[in-house]
Design goal:
With 669 residues, the protein is α/β, with parallel strands linked by helices. The strands form 7 sheets. It has a 6-stranded mixed beta sheet, with helices on both faces.
């Protein structure tokens, strides 16, 4: 074998290269974003990579660290000066010897992923599960031999009405006598849900904090909150470090199936990421680890299981059995979380079903469809879309496998959200000339000063929201037909329509590394949006309705989709555009509600027990809805409400991809 296959994650870019090619050279030729400023001398350390070790069924390769050259002398020198993390190499001095999967961590990327998971503004009734209580305790005497703990509990009852308090953590018990005497019999105690002492300080302690986590397939996001005021003091997010085991959920399950025991490594990886995020936000907010007393977590079922150290294999096939779907409270240390108080509590919201997890429970907690009379459709758009439909009378949920296309993966010029990525697109219907915006710049591409404003970031590709708008704009201009075919006849309007084998592509930016969209890209978007629509229609069938009152887009990605273009593309059923809106990171908001209001934990556990789960994988009508939804916006559904505000083109069904004469000439050559 003279060459080998290389896959780079999270971009998904891949190719074959001669043996002995430096990994950094492979990355540069594929347009993979890896930083390097030392000219490949192995001294800057910015080009670090992580090496996949295992069988990757999705790519049909076996990746092993031995498929790379041994540790080089420059790497050893760098490691002596500044230690490399386990499993990392310097790509400039690592050569290709066999098939390999390479993860480029966010710290090694020039254009780092933007984790768009800010804390949404929300009024939350403050009633945290952990509260601080300052208390004065009666000193012991020879006449009163009651233990210090019992007198502390009695004082808390008398001074704070905590008549259910009976338990104490062992570390607090070990500190109780020291704290009472050091504080001159005045102490502050942290009490969990009015029942258990979890921390103790001598004298007055006024600070108690918690962190709400949203563990996503692609990102980990967290908000550090003051438990007394509810204020968000700091937020942070990182790429989920599990991405090197697979960019989507089923790839990671497949990895575990192909590599028995590897769930331990995936669990270790996600927990390390959580500790990293906590350290980042507490450093930013200048909060001591000992003051972080409570954590809440939402996430999809596979992330939920891997966080808890549970093998997710059962979720890889029917009947998609959960190990547990109950909410649960654990010590943070049981999850190997060390950047908090050793007695911090971690509450994990309940999962709903095999592919509808605690993140959807968080969305329900945030948006409260079960308390409204309106029929509401909530869609959390991601690699695996979760859908909630109903009102106070009945609530249904489903998940639909949209895949990573909406996030820019598996799209020829696609990328994740980062500075320089195109996120907004407009196309002139007559000339087909585009204008666009990129992340990190408020100017449009035809505005004066755009070139200067984007000089540092450049224009690097197109992310999910831009892809949706580009396809929808091409449809509105007549360049794409109803069934998703790029109309070659549009080439008479513009030379941006170019032949691409037997099909065509539309070129957004013409240069050496052009930014364009081809027929395969459009098919990937059609498959993703059809799965999303089919899941929603299936729920509507089950509920016996033909329309919804409002649609809510949840999730970090959903918050950046222009709802008008989502309707034009046919991602969603027809609805008055004025009643379609984004709720931002609703799952993260739900985690924050659970952190700051203990009653909400009981409420969501009650709601989850009565939700009806619809399994799209076994529903006969799902495929029928899916096929019809491949058309733009839909083969048969009339978008009457949308057409009242948007001038939709007359449906045009499939055209010849190339003229028959061209095809005949090609066959003769």
């Amino acid at each position: 074998m003279d060459d080998a296959f290389v896959v780079f994650l999270p971009s998904g870019k891949q190719g074959r290269f001669p043996l002995g090619t430096p990994i950094l050279d492979c990355a540069r030729k594929l347009g993979v974003d890896i930083d390097s400023v030392c000219g490949g001398r192995g001294i800057c350390g910015r080009c670090q990579i992580e090496v996949g070790d295992g069988d990757y069924a999705k790519f049909a390769i076996e990746s092993r660290p031995t498929n790379l050259s041994p540790i080089s002398a420059p790497e050893q020198k760098y490691d002596q000066r500044k230690s490399l993390k386990p499993g990392r190499r310097l790509s400039c001095h690592t050569e290709l010897l066999g098939d390999i999967v390479i993860d480029v961590p966010s710290s090694s990327q020039v254009h780092k992923q933007i984790v768009r998971k800010r804390a949404e503004v929300r009024d939350i009734e403050l009633d945290p599960a952990i509260r601080l209580h300052y208390v004065e305790v009666e000193e012991p005497t020879l006449d009163s031999q009651t233990g210090d703990l019992e007198r502390l509990i009695q004082a808390l009852d008398m001074q704070w009405g905590l008549d259910q308090l009976e338990e104490i953590d062992i570390r607090s018990l070990q500190r109780i006598q020291l704290c009472l005497r050091k504080g001159d019999w005045k102490v502050t105690v942290a009490v969990h849900r009015n029942a258990r002492i979890t921390a103790i300080w001598p004298g007055f302690q006024g600070n108690a904090y918690g962190v709400a986590f949203d563990i996503g397939t692609t990102t980990i996001a967290a908000h550090l909150c003051d438990l007394a005021s509810g204020e968000v003091l700091a937020s942070d997010g990182i790429m989920n470090p599990q991405i090197r085991f697979g960019e989507d959920l089923m790839s990671r399950v497949s990895y575990v199936m192909m590599n028995p025991g590897s769930e331990i490594e995936l669990t270790r990886t996600i927990r390390a990421g959580i500790n990293e995020v906590i350290k980042n936000i507490r450093t930013e907010a200048q909060v001591e680890a000992s003051e972080i007393l409570n954590l809440t977590f939402v996430g999809n079922p596979i992330m939920h299981h891997l966080l808890l150290g549970i093998d997710p294999t059962e979720l890889g096939g029917a009947p998609f059995a959960l190990a547990s779907n109950s909410g649960m409270t654990l010590w943070a240390t049981e999850l190997d979380i060390i950047e908090t108080s050793p007695d911090a509590r971690a509450y994990i919201l309940p999962c709903i079903a095999g592919h509808v997890g605690a993140d959807t429970a968080g969305v329900i907690l945030s948006e409260s469809p079960h308390l409204s009379g309106e029929i509401t459709l909530i869609v959390d758009v991601g690699t695996n879309a979760e859908l909630v439909l109903g009102n106070k009378d009945r609530l249904l949920v489903a998940s639909s496998p949209t895949g990573p296309a909406f996030e820019g993966a598996q799209i020829s010029s696609g990328q994740r959200a980062a500075p320089g990525a195109i996120e907004r697109v407009r196309i002139d219907k007559q000339t087909l000339e585009p204008r666009f915006q990129v992340i990190g710049c408020d100017l449009w591409s035809d505005d004066p000063g755009f070139e200067d404003a984007t000089r540092l970031s450049g224009v690097t590709g197109i992310c999910g929201s831009g892809i949706i708008e580009l396809v929808a704009e091409l449809f509105l201009s007549g360049t794409i037909t109803t069934d998703g075919v790029i109309n070659g006849n549009s080439a008479v309007k513009s030379d941006r329509i170019k032949e691409d084998g037997r099909t065509y592509r539309y070129v957004l930016i013409e240069r050496e590394n052009e930014v364009s969209i081809n027929q395969t890209d459009i098919r990937a978007i059609q498959l993703a949006k059809a799965a999303l629509y089919a899941g929603a229609q299936l729920l509507m069938d089950k509920l016996g309705i033909s329309s919804v009152d409002k649609i809510v887009l949840a999730g970090a990605f959903g918050s950046h989709i222009d709802t008008k273009y989502a309707l034009i593309l046919g991602m969603l059923p027809d609805c008055d555009p004025n009643n379609v809106y984004s709720a931002g990171n609703a799952a993260g908001t739900g985690a924050r509600i659970a952190l700051l209001n203990q009653k909400s934990r009981d409420d969501i556990e009650s709601v989850v027990r009565i939700i009806e789960k619809v399994e799209t994988a076994i529903e006969p009508r799902f495929q029928e809805h899916f096929i019809d939804a491949m058309a733009i916006p839909h083969k048969s559904a009339r978008y009457i409400k949308l057409s009242q505000t948007v001038d939709l083109p007359t449906p045009v069904i499939s055209i010849n991809e190339r003229s028959s004469s061209n095809r005949r000439r090609r066959r003769r050559t």
